[in-house]
Amino acid sequence: MVRPIATGPGKMTETTFFAVQNLSKNFGGLAAVNDLSFELKKGEIRGLIGPNGAGKTTVFNVISGFYRPSSGKILYEGENIAGLKSHQIARKGVIRTFQATTLFQEFSTFQNVIVGRYMHTRNNVWTALAGTARASERENEERANEILEFLGLAERKDELAVNLAHGHQRALGIAIALAAEPKLLLLDEPFTGMNPEETRQMMKLIEKVRDQGITILLVEHDMKAVMGLCHHITVINFGQLLAEGSPDEIRDNKDVIEAYLGTGEHAA
User: Fold this and answer.
1) Same-domain pairing of 187 and 200
2) CATH code at 264?
3) What is the pLDDT of residues 123-176, one digit of tens each?
4) Count of structural domains, the chain
5) What is the rounded (10 degree) CA torsion for 234, 25, 92, 126?
């Protein structure tokens, strides 16, 4: 079983565990994200949805440090992390996955998770001389095995990533992210290319991750998955906030239906 992630004391209340405030990102004269604000409660699964080109991936790239914001704040446990480098943000516990599963294809399942563990390993010449590096390696291996067991991948630990079925590759992507010990996990379209059974299994895995105390921000186009998983949903369009609310409120929101969801069965 994956150990609960310890979350240190923060300066913000639980209702403002994470927030973007008046966030903007411009590319030349184009505003990909424009004065966007929303908050996450600790332990929730929040959906971030919108039509293609709405700015969702740009939001993820700014939050995770791949882009510097043009203006605004990103508040995480009381600290403004806007403008920090991606590895600095990851060290603080904000970890993202990508639309395309990023795996070391010729590494085994186990080796892929070990790579994720190195984000939390600070071995150097001094730790090696002190004899602590070997202890750290043992801890990494134990943690990797725990994560694989937790996500149902233990029986495939020795398989090469390239040989895994699509659904297992997506689960391995989450395993690598968990190995970095996130407090906030940014999932970028984890259901892409999945059949209905794979989707149901991935939904269960995401709920299990949330039950470990990890807050999740989810970008996804599969509306059945979004509506079934998320406590609240933030909808953006043209880089701006369009609507926020519960799944039922979003499903019935006329502006959202017009911009994105469609009508009838497409609203599900």
Assistant:
1) yes
2) 3.40.50.300
3) 544 444 444 556 678 888 999 999 999 999 999 999 999 999 999 999 999 999
4) 2
5) 160
